[in-house]
Description:
Elements: H1 5-8, H2 21-24, H3 29-36, E1 42-45, H4 52-61, E2 66-71, H5 77-86, E3 96-101, H6 108-113, H7 115-119, E4 123-129, H8 133-136, H9 139-142, E5 146-149, H10 155-173, E6 177-179, H11 183-190, H12 195-208, E7 210-212, E8 215-218, H13 220-226, H14 239-253, H15 257-269, H16 273-288, H17 295-309, H18 315-327, H19 333-346, H20 406-423
Parallel strand pairs: 1-4, 1-5, 2-3, 3-4, 6-8
Antiparallel strand pairs: 7-8
Helix pairs in contact: 10-11, 10-12, 14-15, 14-16, 15-18, 16-17, 16-18, 17-18
Amino acid sequence: MATPLADRIRPKxxxxxxxxxxxxxxxxxxxxxxxxxxxxNMIFYGSSGIGKTTVARIIAEQTDLKLHKLNGTSxxxxxxxxxxxxxxxxxxxxxILLYLDEIQYLNKxxxxxxxxxxxxxxxxLIASTTENPYFYVYNAIVSRCTVFEFKPVKAEExxxxxxxxxxxxxxxxxxxxxxxxxVAEYIARGCGGDVRKSVNTVEFCALSGDITPKGVYVSMxxxxxxxxxxxxxxxxxxxxxxxxxxxxxxxxxxSDENAALHYAARLLEAGDLISICRRLLVIAAEDIGLAYPxxxxxxxxxxxxxxxxxxPEARVPIADAVVLLATAPKSNSAYMAxxxxxxDIKSGITGDFPRCLQNKHFDGxxxxxxxxxxxxxxxxxxxxxxxxxxxxxxxDRVYYEFGDNKLEQAALMYRKKILEENKT
Length: 424
């Protein structure tokens, strides 16, 4: 079986790795750890294809520990027990280095079974995960490890790997590979910082290029056709899903319509219409709120239209909603007020209803003041009359503060007016 090009081109030392200079550049923390050859327990966190496994392999080759490899997607309890049993053999007398890929797929019991051996140093763990370890890895494991975050590789850093991959592919095929101008750069950019997928795309291009007397010709149109849409790093149940929605909301909240359109486009291209619709409805109420209340029904109309139309036409009303929200005045006054009220409820600060608000028309023998004494506001000027609405324990509590936008300031002026007139 032929070894994939991505495996054959895998770096053999730290200097050959593209990207991750914040970790393995000269003098950086992970590089110093590797060069010391004193390997601590570590968790490598980041998206796929950006060097986590490669760095782990380089570390394993520089240590005297017995190496075991497991993948969380397929590892069983028996596999873990076999590694633990190796701790007491001659092979494992110097200790065991366990490289555990996709650790987030191991259940809590499986992760716990390693805990004692990580604690006493018989097993040194290097785990990798594409999900946030603080959410997906058992806390006792995380607390015994140093977490290193691997970041997507910049396109310009991927280009040398793509060019090297084309060269190796040509050597394998015993021919020259001729590239259109910009092909290497296009593949590097189009695969969104995933080196492995970039190299896989190179292999596809080399195998499907046009055979000419001078060699295999790879045109720009072929590169565009085969470049994987790896920049769509998206998992509806994973971190990237929530990162995209968070980026969309924060861009709208920050009144950057261009960034908001970018993240909305990524969600639409991933086919996730429902998530973007739900988030836009939240944003309309949470971030625009009372500064422009009409945004809520307008966005609801856009969302309803998008759902009825379906993709790709849904992008039109979604674009309207995104730009409207990003360029609208902002207020979170009502949202913050509700959060404060809920916090009181959770803290047990409630109290009984004021008598005037209760839905009963008789008093018990123990009532000091007989009668409901509810004042009907519509019977008074400006449809307002002073009376207590909050429970006694909270009667002076203020949750809502009028925002500094035009509409809420107008409401504040009206409130002051009726309060002043009520004094007379």
